[in-house]
Amino acid sequence: MKWFTYDQNNSGGYFIDNDDVSHLICVQAENADEANTRAYQITEEYGEFCECCGSRWYIAERDEDGADVPTQYDKPLSESTASGYRQTAVLHFANGEKRKVRIGEPIDL
Q1: Domain assignment of residue 109, yes or no
Q2: Which of 12, 32, 51, 54 has the fewest CB atoms within 10 Å around its CB?
Q3: What is the tens place of the pLDDT at every residue in 15-41?
Q4: Domain that holds residue 55
């Protein structure tokens, strides 16, 4: 199993942050196709499009983008630095569990 990370664009000038999505979502899956399908399902009701800003989510991961742990810019979330609006991520485990975590803090997988 690998982790695939999806970054939220502030489409319309705001971010959506709740139990399902945050500034980042990380999806655990066997491969990128499975992760992309799950990411579409997760973000479907949070997928506004803004003519100025574009799509809220960019769902186009490749197998080589998968990592052994949840990441942000190829760095483990637990070692990343939270900044401004990017404070949390929602992890979506393969078994259906989901958990909101703070970027830069230890993550118990």
Answers
A1: no
A2: 51
A3: 999 999 999 999 999 999 999 999 999
A4: 2-102
